């Protein structure tokens, strides 16, 4: 089985800041990590390989330093990795990114299953998975929490819904985006890390993957980011401190004064 | 401080630290309470290849030595030395096979131990043979192609959980310690059973049990080295493994120091963090200095062993004594820095103080270690005079 995992290198958003003057992310001094949802996709890919055999190929589109994320993916059990990197890809939105990734996957001989995290924690769009599927003209299922079975070119998955889940069958090849509930990613292994250190990571340029340059990077991106900003913190809150009996009655009289009544309160 | 670790050693240390942080620290208090054996952590360590680091590469290892093992034990012990002991004690059980196993024995056991599929244990101590290890009574009577083992080993770490045991027994009781031999015993050999799990003060997540042998018949091919070499095998093994105990102690001490520093910055009294008071600062400074000194000595001992230095007994004993005494002092002081909170189970330092105590006692009490050091000094002086 040919398994592809598309990953994204993102800034570790637990400590990301926005430059108020330029409205862009301050990337200096911020560690880059594999998008956390993609780690679950890698793990699921490795588990599929362990169960059904085959290879796990990880790809990412990004600048040269994104090769580090690919190395880390090899440390987590992927067999090989490709970096899709070219100036022509710069400024890509989700449409252009999905197009480039689809071209790369096709160039590499296609896949039976393509896994990704449900969304990247920096862009939060969740569009690239379905976009890759459309470009390759294959089906996709998003928010997968479980792969139930794969038999005779047919896959059955559970798709997480707000309440409960949907059981969905699809024909291979298929794009699946996964949620955290799908597995518990394993710790990296030393053998994997040693392999990652030595691994050759080929770089695929726009010309290598036969992509129409007009559909890449800024040219191929109808989306323009106007501004990035931190939403203002909701203000005006008040904290009541003191003995619970006093604070509760103070809160209630405040609410009553504001015209809000609470059922059962007296 | 720069300890000149290679890239691979840094990788090993970082991975062990990650497992300690993510998989061990969150369950340390719970397993300390329940005494449950940490099989989940053992599986994680196995999958991460950490059991491979000190096994030769021809047997599925990564070809490192005691230093690599020490790096792992130290990092794991920062989070919980009881859990770390499942790993370290398996290392102790594996060392005699690496040092003295024949090709067949190595091929049979080392790949599975390196993969972490099975754990090992080392059985020397008996109720009447602690510091006086030569006083063992367990016998292994030669009978045709087998040995028939009878006797009881006491306080064996990983007892009941490990699959392979290196047991020291008398094959020729008349000759006393010169008639002792080391024999590999598989867990499922008929006649081999385990006593109850001991209820311990510290390192409670580790399993300590009696090994009970009643007419346990083991094939002679399970003999390590030669008949009569049992005591030598045991002593050479302990010479190599002591830096492992030292790094366990070092990890405990470092863990307690980390807690004390963090707490001293958070805890406010008299309107300032207690880290602003010289009384606390001097304690932290002394603790950190001792920990660093213990680390330097422990690493030096482990590296000397890996470099193939001939006489490592003394250095290895020094590392064990110094690091374990340091662990006891530093953890006691950490509890003091945390004050009343330090005495409560809600904070991890009281556990570290209980855990530290055993490092002064097992794998040779610190009194025995000092005897080893002193005898080494005297022997050397005599040699130099000649």
Could you list some keywords that capture this structure?
heterodimer; A: 266 residues; alpha/beta; Rossmann fold; nine-stranded mixed beta sheet; two-stranded antiparallel ribbon; 6 helices; 13 strands; 26% strand; globular; B: 386 residues; alpha+beta; Butyryl-Coa Dehydrogenase, subunit A, domain 1; Butyryl-CoA Dehydrogenase, subunit A, domain 2; Butyryl-CoA Dehydrogenase, subunit A, domain 3; 3 domains; four-stranded mixed beta sheet; four-stranded antiparallel beta sheet; 10 strands
Widest sheet of chain B: strand order? 1-4-5-8
Instruction: Give the topology string of chain B: H per helix, E per strand.
Output: HHHHHEEEEEEEEHEEHHHH
CATH hierarchy: architecture of the largest domain in chain B = Up-down Bundle
Structural class of chain A: alpha/beta
Specify the number of helices of chain B.
Answer: 10
CATH level 3 topology of chain A: Rossmann fold
Question: Into which percent range does the helicity of residues of chain A fall?
Answer: 25-40%
The whole-angstrom Rg of chain A is: 23 Å
What class, by secondary structure content of chain B? alpha+beta
Question: Average pLDDT value of chain B?
Answer: 97
Q: For this entry, what is the oligomeric state of its chains? A: heterodimer
Shape estimate of chain B: globular
Major β-sheet profile of chain B: 4 strands, mixed
How many structural units, i.e. domains of chain B?
Answer: 3
User: Runs of chain A with pLDDT <50, length 5+?
Assistant: none
Q: Give the CA-CA distance, first to last residue of chain A.
A: 67 Å
Describe the structure.
Chain A has a single domain, classed as HUPs (Rossmann fold, 3-Layer(aba) Sandwich). Chain A contains 6 helices and 13 strands. Chain A has helices at residues 36-52, 67-75, 94-107, 128-136, 190-198, 244-257, and strands at 2-6, 9-11, 17-19, 24-26, 32-34, 55-61, 80-84, 113-117, 139-151, 154-160, 165-171, 174-178, 203-204. A 9-stranded mixed sheet of chain A has the order 11-10-9-12-8-1-6-7-13, with helices on both faces. A two-stranded antiparallel ribbon of chain A has the order 2-5. Chain A has a two-stranded antiparallel ribbon with strand order 3-4. In chain A, strand 9 (139-151) and strand 10 (154-160) form a beta hairpin. In chain A, helix 3 packs across helix 4 (128-136). The longest helix of chain A has 17 residues, at 36-52. The model of chain A has no long low-confidence stretch (mean pLDDT 91). Chain B has helices spanning 7-34, 39-47, 66-79, 81-100, 103-114, 230-266, 278-306, 313-343, 349-359, 366-385, and strands at 120-123, 139-143, 146-157, 164-170, 180-186, 192-194, 208-219, 223-224, 268-269, 272-273. In chain B, the strands form 3 sheets. Chain B has a 4-stranded mixed sheet. A 4-stranded antiparallel sheet of chain B has the order 2-3-7-6, covered by helices on one side. In chain B, a hairpin with a 2-residue loop joins strand 2 (139-143) and strand 3. Chain B starts with 6 loop residues before the first helix and ends with a helix. At the A-B interface, helix 5 of A face helix 1 of B.
């Amino acid at each position: 089985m040919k398994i592809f995992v598309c990953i994204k290198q993102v800034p570790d958003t637990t400590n990301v800041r926005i430059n108020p003057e330029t409205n862009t992310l301050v990337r200096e001094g911020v560690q880059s990590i594999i998008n956390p949802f993609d780690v679950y996709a890698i793990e699921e890919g490795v588990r599929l390989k362990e169960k059904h055999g085959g290879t796990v190929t990880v790809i990412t589109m990004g600048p040269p330093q994104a090769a580090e994320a690919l190395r880390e993916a090899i440390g987590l059990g992927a067999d090989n990795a490709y970096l899709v990197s070219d100036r022509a890809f710069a400024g890509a939105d989700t449409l252009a990114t999905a197009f480039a990734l689809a071209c790369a996957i096709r160039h590499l001989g296609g896949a039976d299953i393509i896994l990704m995290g449900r969304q990247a924690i920096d862009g939060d769009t969740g569009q690239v998975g379905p976009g890759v599927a459309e470009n390759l003209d294959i089906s996709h299922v998003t928010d997968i929490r479980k792969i139930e079975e794969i038999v005779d070119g047919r896959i059955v998955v559970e798709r997480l819904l707000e309440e409960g889940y949907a059981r969905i069958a699809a024909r291979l090849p298929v794009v699946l985006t996964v949620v955290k509930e799908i597995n518990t990613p394993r710790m990296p292994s030393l053998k994997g890390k040693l392999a990652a250190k030595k691994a050759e990571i080929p770089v695929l340029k726009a010309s290598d993957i036969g992509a129409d340059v007009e559909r890449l990077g800024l040219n191929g991106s109808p989306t323009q980011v106007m501004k990035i900003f931190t939403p203002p913190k909701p203000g005006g809150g008040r904290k009541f401190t003191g003995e619970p009996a006093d604070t509760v009655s103070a809160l209630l009289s405040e609410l009553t004064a504001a015209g809000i009544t609470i059922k059962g309160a007296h | 401080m720069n300890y000149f670790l290679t890239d691979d050693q840094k990788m090993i240390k970082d991975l062990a630290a990650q497992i300690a942080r993510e998989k061990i620290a969150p369950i340390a208090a719970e397993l300390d309470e329940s005494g449950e054996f940490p099989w989940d952590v053992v599986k994680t360590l196995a999958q991460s290849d950490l059991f491979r680091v000190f096994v030769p590469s021809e047997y599925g290892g990564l070809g490192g030595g005691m230093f690599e093992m020490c790096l792992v034990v130290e990092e794991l012990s920062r989070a919980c030395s009881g859990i770390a002991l499942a790993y370290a004690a398996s290392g102790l059980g594996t060392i005699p096979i690496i040092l003295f196993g024949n090709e067949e024995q190595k091929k049979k056991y080392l790949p599975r131990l390196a993969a972490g599929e099975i754990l090992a244990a080392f059985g020397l101590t008996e109720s009447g043979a602690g510091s006086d290890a030569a006083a063992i009574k367990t016998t292994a009577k030669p009978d045709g192609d087998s040995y028939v083992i009878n006797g009881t080993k006491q306080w064996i770490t990983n007892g009941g959980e490990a699959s392979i045991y290196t047991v020291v027994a008398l094959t020729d009781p008349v000759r006393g310690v010169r008639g002792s031999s080391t024999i590999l015993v598989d867990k499922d050999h008929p006649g081999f059973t385990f006593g109850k799990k001991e209820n311990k003060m510290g390192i409670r997540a580790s399993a300590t049990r009696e090994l009970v042998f009643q007419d346990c018949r083991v094939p002679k091919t399970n003999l390590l080295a030669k008949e009569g070499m049992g005591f030598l095998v045991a002593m050479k093994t302990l010479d190599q493994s002591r830096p492992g105990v030292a790094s366990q102690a070092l990890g405990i001490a470092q863990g307690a120091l980390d807690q004390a520093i963090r707490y001293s910055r958070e805890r406010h009294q008299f309107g300032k963090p207690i880290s602003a008071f010289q009384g606390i600062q001097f304690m932290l400074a002394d603790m950190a200095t001792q920990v660093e000194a213990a680390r330097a000595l422990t690493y030096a001992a482990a590296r000397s062993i890996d470099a193939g230095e001939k006489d490592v007994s003394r250095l290895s004993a020094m590392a064990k004594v110094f690091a374990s005494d340091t662990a006891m002092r530093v953890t006691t002081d950490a509890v003091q820095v945390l004050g009343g909170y330090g005495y409560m189970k809600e904070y991890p330092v009281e556990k570290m103080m209980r855990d530290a105590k055993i490092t002064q006692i097992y794998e040779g009490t610190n009194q025995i270690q000092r005897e080893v050091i002193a005898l080494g000094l005297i022997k050397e002086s005599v040699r130099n005079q000649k």
